[in-house]
Design goal:
The complex is a heterodimer of chains A (about 140) and B (about 180).
Chain A (H helix, E strand, L loop, with lengths): L2 H17 L3 H16 L30 H16 L3 H13 L3 H14 L2 H16 L1
Helix pairs in contact in A: 3-4, 4-5, 5-6
Chain B lengths: L9 H23 L1 H21 L1 H9 L1 H26 L13 H5 L1 H8 L3 H11 L5 H8 L3 H27 L1
Classes of the chains: A mainly alpha (about 140), B mainly alpha (about 180).
Chain lengths: ~140, ~180
């Protein structure tokens, strides 16, 4: 079997395994942890409550998803700070975000910094792809 | 409501988590096995809630980039596996026995695939899971992870090569 076939077969098994979990029940338990802690505080306005049983946010609630370029720049600012503190993964994230913003030359420099800092993803990425890109 | 300001309340956190819980559970099953998956997800939830309360800047990351949550989950799972390894080693004194996540016959049948996935680096693992288990196209992965599409393709070819190599070598070991 090819790698793809084996992964696809495992994806079907995982879907069956997932179906055996009580997700709404688990969510109710987790939500109770937060609500018990914040109970009595004024931070949760009426009408913004998320239904744990539905396992889905209500319409209009905050939902994950990538925003516009402004968001990328704010994330970049956040990770610049972490990278300056010596965090290797944050250094790699700066490189990825600079790539996303098409700031290629800066990105290349940050990929190399992330490699030097020992981020495993950056090490592989630079070895396999960036070296050929910088040679072009 | 403005992104990153103090008006993000606990209900916003719960809304984000509700959308990610099932996806987090799938990842945890592969990383630590079915028996420990819920514990790993719960521990991650508690850690993220603490981050949410502490850092308004991180709230924006948690809301906009699900990958942040999944990275935290992977870290929790790795810690859990290491903890299990240490416990197992203390039981079998003097002999190294690696903890292998399990929980069903399916896990055993596909343990090699999951072991290969666990050997990937953080970003590779996330892209592999999204590609093969969530069937996300490269553009969606790029959007959700905040990567360039070309970067996702580059990671994907590295992932394929690593999985192929890992599976070939583990198949060889099984044949001995």
């Amino acid at each position: 079997l090819s790698v793809d076939d084996r992964l696809n077969a495992d994806a079907e098994i995982l879907a069956r395994e997932l179906a055996s979990f009580d997700v709404p029940g688990a969510l109710r338990k987790l939500f109770a942890l937060v609500r018990d802690e914040t109970e009595g505080s004024s931070e949760a306005p009426a009408g913004r409550s998320v239904a744990a049983g539905s396992a889905q946010p209500r319409q209009g609630e905050a939902q994950p998803g990538h925003g516009g370029q402004g968001w990328v720049e704010r994330e970049l600012a956040l990770y610049y700070q972490c990278a300056r503190g010596g965090n290797a993964a944050a250094t790699r994230r700066v490189a990825e975000l600079l790539d996303l913003l098409d700031r290629e030359e800066e990105a290349v420099a940050w990929w190399h910094r992330a490699t030097a800092a020992g981020d495993p993803d950056a090490v592989d990425y630079v070895r396999e792809f960036l070296s050929s890109r910088t040679r072009r | 409501m403005h992104v990153g300001d103090e008006s993000y309340c606990s209900e916003d956190f719960l809304a984000v988590w509700a959308a990610l819980h099932g996806r987090a559970l799938g990842r945890a099953i592969i990383l630590v096995g079915r028996n420990d998956a819920e514990d790993a997800v719960q521990e991650t939830f508690v850690k993220l809630w603490a981050t949410w309360k502490k850092s308004p800047a991180k709230r924006e990351v948690i809301i906009n980039r699900p990958g942040y949550t999944f990275t935290a989950l992977r870290r929790t799972c790795i810690d859990l596996l290491e903890q299990k390894n240490r416990q197992q080693e203390s039981v079998v004194a003097g002999e190294h026995v690696a903890y292998i996540p399990g929980g069903s016959n399916d896990d055993i049948v596909h343990s090699k695939v999951r072991e290969a996935l666990r050997s990937l680096n953080q970003t590779e693992w996330e892209i592999a899971y999204r590609t093969f288990y969530e069937k996300q196209p490269a553009a969606v992965i790029a959007g959700e992870m905040g990567l360039r599409v070309g970067t996702v393709y580059n990671y994907r070819s590295s992932i394929k090569r690593k999985l192929q190599s890992h599976l070939t070598s583990s198949d060889g070991e099984g044949a001995d």
